[in-house]
Amino acid sequence: MPPSETVLVTGASSGIGLELAKFFAADRSALILVARRGERLDALTKDLKAAHGIEVRTIAKDLAAPGAVEEIHESLKNRGVAVDVLVNNAGFGKQGRFHEIDAAQQSEMIRLNVLALTDLTRAFLPAMIARRKGGILNVASTASFQPGPMMSVYYATKAYVLFFTEGIAEELKGTGVTATCLCPGPTRTEFMARAGFKASNAFESAAMSAERAARKGHRAFRRGKVVAIPGFVNTLGSLLPRFAPRWLPRKVTKFLNS
Ligand SMILES: NC(=O)c1ccc[n+]([C@@H]2O[C@H](COP(=O)([O-])OP(=O)(O)OC[C@H]3O[C@@H](n4cnc5c(N)ncnc54)[C@H](OP(=O)(O)O)[C@@H]3O)[C@@H](O)[C@H]2O)c1
Predict the structure, then answer these.
(1) Which of 82, 98, 216, 224 could pair with 230 as two cysteines, CB 3.0-4.6 Å apart?
(2) Phi, psi (5° rounding) for residue 66?
(3) Is 1 within a domain?
(4) Is residue 201's pLDDT more than 90?
(5) What is the pLDDT of residues 237-248, one digit of tens each?
């Protein structure tokens, strides 16, 4: 059982974030749940309090909105709440050709997947280092390992998350604080619908449960691992771009994302 701690989870209203919140709740960590759909967070709060008797706060906030990260940081600081573990999970993708996807949605994606994640980390990390305790768990993707035609911006944002997390993980050595990057492959959540993909049998047969993806991330974080890829096929798939000629993953990914 880890010592008492407070864990902030973004994107806790569904999918992998909701399952990550459950794993940290089972550790009896106090939770701060962030997402836009407050009613979903309230329902999860009720369940987690009943199951584990833990303290749970909710913050209904659009993390892609300007000033959102600063507001969260300030309001927790003013209430004397220290965040020991930051789980940057909120994110979304959009399928289509770059020049045809709504420009505002592309910008929103970069603000959420990249900027909010970076700003939250910058806001909470110094106090973790001062306490020599806690860490960051960022959710990237197997998309992080290669370019992603028909989802080009999304794949690029996830490459950022992986490289950023690996970079700070190395910087943090010896501080008592860790950084872990979870890189799930296809996972059954609301992600595909929001991205604009039609449900396909190929996705359904390749996809794993959000619970399994979250278990891998939670365990890797607890063990201080830097990169965690759930599932053998996903692990293998993430290795291929390293050994294949650069054009091959581009072609395969374009086919899979079309
Ligand atoms: N599912 C997959 O196949 C897959 C594969 C690899 C990586 N991932 C990554 O896993 C992470 C979680 O996604 P998921 O699959 O669990 O999808 P999901 O079910 O759609 O969950 C996304 C979460 O992010 C929150 N969110 C979205 N926009 C937000 C915003 N502007 N402000 C605050 N919260 C926001 C959503 O809550 P609200 O809508 O209530 O705000 C929701 O809780 C993402 O980073 C995604 O890129 C997913």
Answers:
(1) 216
(2) -60, 135
(3) no
(4) no
(5) 999 999 999 999
